[in-house]
Design brief:
Oligomer: single chain
Number of strands: 2
Number of helices: 20
Distance between the termini: 119 Å
CATH class of the domain at 305-394: Mainly Alpha
Largest sheet: 2 strands, antiparallel
Order of helices and strands: HEEHHHHHHHHHHHHHHHHHHH
Shape: rod-shaped
CATH topology of the domain at 305-394: Serine Threonine Protein Phosphatase 5, Tetratricopeptide repeat
Length: 416
C-alpha cells in the first residue's frame, strides 16, 4: 500500500513539473530518413519523450495481456486435467472411509467412479472387489480382481491374497489353498499369506499339511510362542485322534514316535495318547504311559482308567497302585481302582474292602455296582440287591417328590 501511495505521489509531482520544464527548456527532435526522398520529421522534444513512454507502456501492456491470456488458457487446461484427479482423489478417500465403516454399497460406487482417473487404480479395484463380495456380487468381485491384476505385474500377490480371503470366507477351502500356493511361489515368506494358509488348513482339518507349515509359521508369521505352542498341541492332538478313530495302531505309534521329547513329556498329550492306546486295545502300552503320568502327578480320571486296563502283569499293576495309596493318600477314585485291580488278581476279600472304603468316602453308583456284582458272585444276594438299589437311586437322585403307598396299606385294585 505504501508503494502505491509513493508511486502516485511521484506521478503527481512529475505531472506538476512537466509543463514548467517543457516551457523553460523547449527543444526539438528531428528524425530524418536518407536516400532520394530525403524525408524527415520534426517534433517537440518533450512530445517525443511522452510518445516514446506511451509506446513502451502500450507494448508492455500488450505483452502482459498475451502472457495473461496464455496463463489463463494453461490454467483452464490444468484445472480440467488435474481437477478431475482431485475429484478422483476425493472419491477414493470417501470410498475408502465408507469401506472401513462397512458401507459396502456406497464404497463400491465411489471407488468405481474414481477408478478410471485414480492415481492408484489397484486400490480402487481391490477395495471395490471386496465391497462387491460383501454385497453378494461374486462374479463382479472376480471381474474387479482381474482388472486389479491388469494394473501392473506387481499386483499379483495383492490380488491373490484378496481372492484367498474371499474364498476363505465363502468356505471354499480347497480353492483358497490353491490360490495361496500360487501366491507362495511369488513371495514364500509373506506373513499374511502364511497366516491365511494356516487358517485354511485349520478349517479344512488338514493337520498333516498344517504340521509341515509349522517351521515357516515359526520363522515368518509373527506368531507369539504361546500361540505357536497352542497350535502345535492342537495339530498333534488331532493327528492322534484321527489315527485312533481309524483304529490304525501303526499310524498312531508313528505319529507318537515322530514327536520330540518335549511333546512326549507333555502331560495332556501323553494322557490323550494313553487313552487312545486303550481305545484301540493296546492296554499293555497304555499301562506304561499311565503309570508314568500318575507317578508324576495325581489325576483321578487317569486313575479310574488305570483300574480298567487289562495289563500284561496284573500283580505289578496292583503293587503300583498301592504305592500311590502311600504317596497320595486314600481317595474314593484310588480305592475303586484298587478294588478293580484286586479283582483282576482274584483277591476277592481285598477287593471288597477297597470298594467298601471307597463308598464310605463317596457314594458312587459305579462303585456300588462293582461291589454289588462282587457280592452277588460271592453269594450274598441280599446285600448285592441292596447295593444295586442304592446305586440306582444315586444315579437318578433327581426324582421328584411324590406320595408313595405305605407297606401296611392293602393293595388297591386298578382304578379307572
Amino acid at each position: 500500500m505504501r508503494k502505491v501511495l509513493f508511486a502516485a505521489l511521484v506521478l503527481l509531482l512529475l505531472g506538476a513539473l512537466f509543463p514548467q520544464v517543457s516551457n523553460n527548456y523547449p527543444g526539438y527532435l528531428v528524425i530524418g530518413f536518407g536516400g532520394e526522398l530525403n524525408k524527415g520529421y520534426e517534433m517537440n522534444l518533450w512530445f517525443a519523450f511522452v510518445a516514446l513512454l506511451a509506446i513502451l507502456c502500450a507494448l508492455f501492456m500488450a505483452i502482459w495481456l498475451v502472457l495473461s491470456l496464455v496463463g489463463a488458457i494453461k490454467g483452464s487446461v490444468d484445472r480440467l486435467r488435474f481437477g478431475r484427479q482431485r475429484v478422483a482423489r476425493r472419491r477414493l478417500t470417501s470410498g475408502l472411509v465408507e469401506f472401513m465403516e462397512g458401507n459396502w454399497s456406497r464404497a463400491r460406487r465411489q471407488l468405481l467412479k474414481s477408478a478410471p482417473r485414480s492415481e492408484a487404480p489397484l486400490i480402487n479395484y481391490l477395495a471395490a472387489a471386496r465391497s462387491a463380495f460383501e454385497l453378494g456380487f461374486r462374479e463382479e468381485a472376480n471381474e474387479l480382481l482381474a482388472k486389479a491384476e491388469a494394473c501392473s505385474e506387481d499386483t499379483r500377490l495383492a490380488v491373490a491374497l484378496n481372492q484367498a480371503r474371499m474364498q476363505l470366507q465363502d468356505k471354499h477351502y480347497e480353492q483358497c489353498i490353491a490360490s495361496l500356493k500360487r501366491a507362495k511361489q511369488l513371495e514364500p515368506k509373506h506373513p499374511a499369506l502364511l497366516q491365511l494358509l494356516k487358517q485354511a488348513y485349520y478349517l479344512l482339518g488338514d493337520w498333516s499339511s498344517l504340521r509341515e507349515l509349522l517351521p515357516e509359521l515359526e520363522k515368518h508369521a509373527s506368531m507369539s510362542n504361546d500361540e505357536l505352542q497352542r497350535l502345535e498341541l492342537q495339530i498333534y492332538q488331532h493327528q492322534l485322534d484321527e489315527a485312533a478313530s481309524r483304529n490304525d495302531k501303526d499310524r498312531l505309534l508313528s505319529i507318537w514316535h515322530s514327536l520330540n521329547g518335549r511333546w512326549q513329556r507333555h502331560m495332556a498329550l501323553r494322557s490323550l495318547y494313553a487313552r487312545q492306546l486303550h481305545q484301540i486295545g493296546d492296554d499293555t502300552e497304555a499301562e506304561k504311559h499311565l503309570r508314568w503320568l500318575l507317578n508324576r502327578e495325581w489325576n483321578a480320571e487317569l486313575c479310574d482308567l488305570y483300574g480298567c486296563l487289562i495289563g500284561g502283569n496284573p500283580a505289578a499293576q496292583l503293587s503300583t497302585a498301592e504305592g500311590w495309596l502311600k504317596e497320595y493318600g486314600e481317595s474314593a477314585d484310588l480305592l475303586t481302582c484298587l478294588g478293580r485291580l484286586s479283582m483282576r488278581n482274584e483277591l476277592w476279600g481285598r477287593a471288597q474292602q477297597y470298594f467298601e472304603k471307597s463308598l464310605l468316602l463317596r457314594q458312587d453308583p459305579v462303585t456300588s455296582a462293582e461291589l454289588a456284582r462282587l457280592l452277588g458272585a460271592l453269594g450274598d444276594k441280599d446285600k448285592a440287591a441292596q447295593l444295586y438299589e442304592e446305586g440306582l437311586m444315586q444315579a437318578v437322585s433327581n426324582l421328584p417328590q411324590l406320595p408313595m403307598p405305605s407297606r401296611d396299606s392293602p393293595l388297591l385294585g386298578a382304578q379307572a
